[in-house]
Amino acid sequence: MPRIIKNERIVDDNWQRLTLAEGETPESVALPAEPVLLPLSVWLARRDEIVAGHRQCGVWLDSDEGPEALAGDLDRLAVIGVNFPKFTDGRSYSSARLLRERYRYSGEIRALGDVLQDQLFFMRRCGIDAYALRADKDLDQALAGLHAFSESYQAAVDQPQPLFRRRGAREAA
């Protein structure tokens, strides 16, 4: 069974990620019985069927897909994956932050794709709390990378106040 980092622990990953093969359509793809992360296109095409079947599912967003398409369905999704198709594509950072801050999504946000140790600290700052690293990466080393920095200057999802405000509040107390 594959393993991921979730909530700062290495755990077994019991979710399968569904991708469409060439020639498959969102309407025709077979849905597995086990917990599955569906492409957004499958969720949008078959939402009523999936909900009626009481399937345990989540949705993954590709880097060119925004979370606004899921705004009305967030309470139905245990996991939302954000795909990083390559190291240099950072659009999924924005999707994660929008899910947490604009849409108040409190479920698991999972980084998928070309996920590297150097990115985890910044992904966490955007609200991502689970990481499916590439198979060639060491999970123990990556887990240590979540604590590479002891303090952050800027405000973010994980720390809503910038450092100067936090220091000012301590001094005033």
Structure overview:
The mean pLDDT is 91. The protein has an eight-stranded mixed beta sheet with strand order 2-1-8-7-6-5-4-3. It has one domain: TIM Barrel. It has helices spanning 40-52, 91-101, 117-125, 139-145, 163-172; strands at 3-6, 9-12, 16-17, 36-39, 57-61, 79-84, 108-113, 130-131. The protein is globular and about 60 Å long. With 173 residues, the protein is an alpha/beta fold. 29% of the residues lie in helices and 19% in strands. The longest helix is centred in the first third of the chain and has 13 residues, at 40-52. It is built from five helices and eight strands. Helix 3 (117-125) packs across helix 4 (139-145). Strand 1 and strand 2 form a beta hairpin.
What is the oligomeric state here?
single chain
CATH architecture: Alpha-Beta Barrel
How many helices? The count is: 5
Distance between the termini: 50 Å
Amount of helix: 25-40%
The CATH class designation is: Alpha Beta
Could you name the key traits of this structure?
173 residues; alpha/beta; 8-stranded mixed sheet; 8 strands; globular
Write a compact overview of the structure shown.
The protein is α/β, with parallel strands linked by helices and about 170 residues long. It has helices spanning about 40-50, 90-100, 115-125, 140-145, 165-170, and strands at about 5, 10, 15, 35-40, 55-60, 80-85, 110-115, 130. The protein has one domain (about 5-170): TIM Barrel (Alpha-Beta Barrel).
List the helices and strands and how they pair.
Layout: E1 3-6, E2 9-12, E3 16-17, E4 36-39, H1 40-52, E5 57-61, E6 79-84, H2 91-101, E7 108-113, H3 117-125, E8 130-131, H4 139-145, H5 163-172
Parallel strand pairs: 3-4, 4-5, 5-6, 6-7, 7-8
Antiparallel strand pairs: 1-2, 1-8
Helix pairs in contact: 3-4
